[in-house]
Amino acid sequence: MDVYGVVGHPITHSQSPVIHQFFSEQIQDPIYYGKIFSELDSFKATVNQFFERGGKGLNITVPFKLEAFELAQKRTARAEIAKAANVLWLKDGILWCDNTDGIGFVRDLERLLHQQNIKPATAKVLILGAGGAAQGVIDPLMNLGINDISIANRTFVKAQELAKQFQGLQPIAMEDLEHQSSQFDLILNATATGLGDSSPIGLDLLKKITHPKTIAYDMVYGKETKFLKDAESLDLLAVDGLGMLVEQAADAFITWRSPSQALDIRSALDAVRASYKT
Ligand code: ATR
Questions:
Q1: Would the CB of 153 count as within 6 Å of ligand 1?
Q2: Which domain covers residue 117, as residue numbers?
Q3: Same domain, 213 and 112
Q4: Which of 31, 135, 147, 254 has CA atoms 20 to 30 A from the CA of 18?
Q5: Rounded to the nearest whole angstrom, what is the distance from the C-alpha of residue 273 to the centroid of ligand 1?
Q6: Positive or negative CA dihedral for 166, 170, 174, 175?
């Protein structure tokens, strides 16, 4: 059986094996997919050892995506743009890398916008946070045809800096959020608050800047964040990052296995949600 895996630090909670095993069973193409822990200073050795032993492909997660990009001998165009990689594989003895995070986010978001009947061209979007996670979604949002994107961050100057890099991105101070002329159709929480138990904005403010069809999207997964709990209490569509995780995995799986039939994304998402509950 061909062997695949996901490398990270930490790695215990990775859902990638569940997703890839699901796809492999769905199309009856057996693979083995495991979790691989790497020490922070031995990522290169871990990767080399995996491929020397005949491994076929790897997913790369935090904090090694930059190193994976640097280690690869050939890069896809989208990896070049992201300057980070979450997929590695060997082809004719050459180590390739790809970045499927952006497309995973785009596919997940397209599905949600369609579900809520929101058109990208007229959608009003707010990004909360101005770190790496926020930066990674700006290009995909713009490529989706979304033009009206605001960014707010606890440290305003960081939002302003990002706005300088992306033409059309509007920095907005947290305290000015409540004076918006219209509500947002999509609010993306790209802050690290999900890891603690706070939300970047209070419930009252969230209520003020949303309408019944607003999508509240948290980039983290595996935990119901305060931001999502608040959104649910307002009856908004509240989604975590599992959808984009499944979508990015699907793209990697397709690169590795070239399946002749479409992968069942919705069922994979159900499977990974069910595995959380056990
Ligand atoms: P990542 O690469 O995952 O985006 P990061 O670069 O450390 O991580 O960025 C974390 C983001 O979460 C930042 O926008 C940070 O705000 P600051 O720039 O003001 O630090 C935001 N963040 C973290 N904790 C927060 C909190 N308690 N409230 C609001 N924003 C928070």
A1: yes
A2: 102-240
A3: yes
A4: 135
A5: 26
A6: positive
Confidence of residue 195 (pLDDT cuts 50, 70, 90): confident
Query: How many C-beta neighbours within 10 Å does residue 237 have?
Result: 16
CATH of the domain at 41: 3.40.50.10860
Q: Do both 16 and 71 map to the same domain?
A: yes
The rounded Å distance from CA 197 to ligand 1 centre is 13
Say if CB 234 and CB 207 are below 8 A apart: yes
Q: Which residues are catalytic?
A: 65
Which residue among 154, 160, 198, 199 is best mutated to probe the pocket of ligand 1, counting the most ligand atoms within 8 A of its Cβ? 154
Query: CATH number of the domain that 195 lies in?
Result: 3.40.50.720
Please say if the pLDDT value at position 277 is more than 70.
Answer: no
DSSP 88-122: EEEETTEEEEE--HHHHHHHHHHHHHHHTT--GGG
Cβ(154) – ligand 1 distance below 6 Å: yes
Q: Which atom of ligand 1 is nearest to the CA of 130?
A: 14
Residues 94 and 71 in one domain: yes
3-state class (DSSP) for residue 55: coil
Q: Using alpha carbons, list the distances in angstroms from residue 137 to 11, 133, 264, 272.
A: 23, 7, 24, 23
Which residues are 8's β-sheet partners? 37
Q: Which tens digits make up the pLDDT trace of 50-61?
A: 999 999 999 999
Q: Do 106 and 227 fall within a single domain?
A: yes
Under the banding of pLDDT at 50, 70 and 90, the label for residue 275 is confident
Q: Is the pLDDT of residue 278 over 70?
A: no
Nearest CA to ligand 1 atom 5: 131
What are the pLDDT digits (tens) for 207-232? 999 999 999 999 998 888 999 999 99
Q: Are residue 225 and residue 265 in the same domain, yes or no?
A: no
| 241 pocket-lining for ligand 1 (C-beta < 6 Å) | no
Each residue's pLDDT tens digit, 65-97: 999 999 999 999 999 988 899 999 999 999 999
- Whether residues 127 and 251 fall in one domain: no
Same domain, 86 and 172: no
Residues 116 and 235 in one domain: yes
